[in-house]
Amino acid sequence: MSDDSMIELFRQEAQTQVAILTQGLLILESNSQSEEILQALMRVAHSIKGAARIISLDGVINLAHCMEDCFVAAQNKIIILGPEQIDVLLQGVDLFQAVSQVPETDMLSWLTENIGEFEACCAAIRALLPPDFNARSSLVSVEQSSEITPTPRQENGALEAITIPNDRVVRVSAENLNRIMGLAGESLVEANWLQPFADSFTVLRYRQLELSRLLETLHTALANTAISPESQQVVDTARQKAQECREILTDRLGELELYARRTTNLSDRLYREVIASHMRPFVDGVQGLPRMVRDLSRRLEKQVKFQIVGQSTLVDRDILKKLEAPLTHMIRNAVDHGIEPPEAREASGKPVEGTIRLEAFHRGGMLAISVSDDGKGIDPNFIRQHIVDRNLASSETAAQLTEAEIIEFLFLSGFSTTDQVTEISGRGVGLDIAKSMVQEVGGTIRAVSQLGNGTSFHFQLPLTLSVVRTLIVTISDEPYAFPLARVDRIVKLDKSEIYVVEGRQYFTKDGQNIGLIAAHDILDLPETLPDSDALCVVVISDQSNAYGLFVDEFLGERDLVVRPLDPRLGKVRDISASALMDDGSPVLILDVSDLVRSIDNMLNSGQLRPVDVNKVKAKAKKGDDHKRILVVDDSITVREMTRKLLQNQGYDVDVAVNGMDAWTAIRSNSYDLIVSDIDMPRMNGIELVKQIKQHPKFHVIPVIIVSYRDREDDRIQGMEAGANYYLTKSSFHDDTLINAIIDLIGR
Known about the structure:
This protein is of the alpha/beta class. The chain has 24 helices and 24 strands.
């Protein structure tokens, strides 16, 4: 195994051992004589030392050895590890943490540059030991201790067990997981296709039974008629063959239905396992919080007990990552502003030690997370005055706000309950970050506070970002998906309910005026209008505005397996992801937050046209006068984006998944233009162009190559093969591709 591979293994082990060291030291701070914790910490330090010795990381070896000596001295009652001593040991843990974050290629140079910090930390730890301490004479045999597994337990109800990871871990990239998720979703879709196919066989069997009955009727009719032996033989043979077909069909249908059930079950199990691979225990994302609370409370001279409940609750790894910043902000604020100093708590009759509780659990098919403290709470009158001072509402309006409405102001960007800005908190950004994160994943957040008794924040989030419950609609005769958690309501709106104020269309529901916007206008799609007085409207909103998006029709609710857009496309406006429908057709999932921003921008710039509800626009039909284009790309995202882009320009568009698929389509249909990627399986774009240009019938079809790679050799190969244009896929974001198509085949 190479040195780089060994360094990477060390980094992985160090990350795990650092978490155990941190957790153990924090527990030890409240129970300095715990034999089990000291034994576990000594073994961890020894493990780090052994791992570092394999790859000769001298600074790490010496630091781990000093920490090991310190834990052994504490085991032998030579020293007592109080808060000040643990401060020093945590500095060593920080260095181990820093080492674990250094890229393997920079590890040796980083250690050389920072050797002074390691030596200073070693000196500080040695200073905790008596001058005559002899590590060797008091060191418990490592060989013996390595056989001892610490038994976590509760002592006097105060000591929490150290969580030691014991599951085998395999590193898989996020891209690989996303691809596996996509394949599992496709497998589920394909499996669902089998049952309708089996149902068609049932129909076939019914038809075959009808045929058998007709033959029996014919046989009965001929029984009283004189016919030749040859004719009788034909009838008898037909009856026999019909019976054989019926038996074979019945057997095969039973086998097919069994296979369909097995395949569906297998695909469902595969899908669930892949979903499970995206889940991690909640504790994995909050391991750094106890240390943060401990350091902040000591710095602010407060006494704070931090509890994490539901550590094993499974959370989508993407949500867990997004929760890190909001939870950090909230808990820092709770320590800084929520929990009072010990003397203030004692004066108000509270325990001098404040409590912050972080809890995660599943409820109602959602992930529920709460952050609560027993501090001083939020003064609604103070917030009310702050709202007036910042000109967010008049004094009369602010006086009428309920406490729940007042607390909602805390989630505004830059809104803070303190005028003092410190490096700990006070800039009013934490709750804004939390609100943005919650909206991004399609969840909710609310705050509850009682003056003098504390504050709590409650998150309700989807269990996974890999599957989303959606409302499927059609816009310009194409399916689109709204995340259901971001849909306020759906309404069937009569044209008579629409009125105009200052040039903008509105309708009213439950006393709220909601602006009416045509969805096709926002998405820059061809206009379609209803042929009845009922308009299908999807109501979406942000913190301050609500809009009703007029769509063609509602298709119903569906769970969709999310497939991220190809990252090479960059951020696609108003679109968050893609998915496959039950029939295998692709659908784009709308980004509601982006949609609201687009609506605001277009309203401010006057670009939006009113919905014309007084006329019916005939839906465009494909005809011979439309130019027909074949789009060839192995990326479903790129295919769909290109198809929609060209259809919006009035072209008829077919798609192919690779060069071989395209070649089959070209020989079967008539096309005015081919738009092809280069890198594809089975037959790449260059080979496809050569096939087209060398064929006596198809060589006149113009071809545009659109590639992510802007390499000169690719460009030369493409043009030599006969391509008419070579473009990069950045052309999706300007008019280059459209202009090239117009140049070749017109509009």
